[in-house]
Amino acid sequence: MEPGYISEEQQGHGDLEYRIRQARILMVDDEPVNLKLLEKMLGADGYVNIHTLTDSREVEAAYEREHYDLILLDINMPHLDGFDVMARLKGVESDGYLPVLVLTAQADRQTRLRALEAGARDFLSKPLDRAEVLNRIRNILEVRLLHKDARDQNRILEEKVQERTHELYETQLEVIRRLGRAAEYRDNETGLHIIRMSKFSQLIGEKAGMSEQDTEMLLNASPMHDIGKIGIPDSILLKPGKLDAEEWKTMQTHTSIGAEILSGHSSPLLIMAREIALTHHEKWDGTGYPEGRRGTDIPLVGRIVAVADVFDALTSERPYKKAWPVEDAVRYINEQAGRHFDPDLVEVFHEVLKEVLEIKERYAEPGIALARQGS
Fold it and tell me: In the 8-state DSSP scheme, what is residue 289?
């Protein structure tokens, strides 16, 4: 069996004393005699994973490669002294704990303080006392190993928290998608409208300069834009003819109803979904509803969804209307720049129109082709 080998059984029981004896120790001294003495001393006490270096310039690379549990470091050495070595090690130590035990013949207070300030955990004065060496080494290794255990446990806990958070977020997304489809199914045969308009919204948001995180959130929040239709009576929502003034006033309340349904939670996703539900029928010139907001007083996500929603609604067939040809719908979007729509977003819409049409083809209603001029 090779020195330093740890069987699965030994790894499993996690015995601290065993792990201390198996710890990886690097001894650095330009005097080979000193290294031999230390190596013999530690070997006799049961340490089996001992490495030595006489050239201090090699320490940084060796530590970065092996991540030793302890470094016994001489101070007075050619090329790089112990202080220089510690300064370099700080640059490669990932968790901020530098496992250095300084060996020095200089017993003055200033040298000891400088060593501790440089990152050393402890120091030993030469000539070395065997009992003191072994006790200090063991103490540092015990702290080092417990520190690693705590770090690993924190990492495992963090991974579990992230996993659970992701699961909760995915559950939240699924609830949102299903609620969005529930609203769409009341006046739309397949619910593919919300898939198309949400993807249009993401495209426009990306081109408008929103961050990747925010456009991903926009993709998942925008399907809730018409959730408030759940609260609209079927006699109005499904009326085949034109709504009268009172019915239209009732229909407009779906924005406020949607905002109310989505309010009261601190989730950024639900906050954005609420903004969209409330403001996607506001107009750039202030003639929209429910609050008559104007210009940039309308949240960016509400302005984006307004363009995406209207374009898809115009180019989609409904029981009460035929689909507009794409050219006619684009012309309408242009005409409404500065009136219904943010004029800057209309320009952005043109920049992504090719991708928008590809999405519309990919998620077309079953049996319905994209309407084009002359088709």
Answer: S
Listed residue (103, 108, 149, 99) closest to 125, CA to CA: 103
| Chunked mean pLDDT (size 10), the chain, 375 residues | 43 68 89 89 89 91 87 88 86 75 78 77 80 85 81 82 80 73 63 88 97 95 91 88 93 96 88 96 97 97 98 86 93 97 98 97 72 38
Confirm if 176 and 269 have CB atoms less than 8 A apart. yes
Provide the whole-model pTM: 0.59
Q: What does the block give as tokens for 205?
A: 């948001």
Number of H helices, E strands in the chain: 17, 5
Q: How many CB atoms lie within 10 A of CB 287?
A: 11
CB atoms within 10 A of CB 188: 19
CATH 1.10.3720.10 fits 186-362, yes or no: no
- CB-based contact 360:196 (threshold 8 Å): yes
Phi, psi of 329 (to 5 degrees): -65, -40
User: Domain 8-158 maps to which CATH number in 3.30.365.10, 3.40.50.300, 3.40.50.2300, 3.40.50.620?
Assistant: 3.40.50.2300
Cβ 239 vs Cβ 195: under 8 Å: no
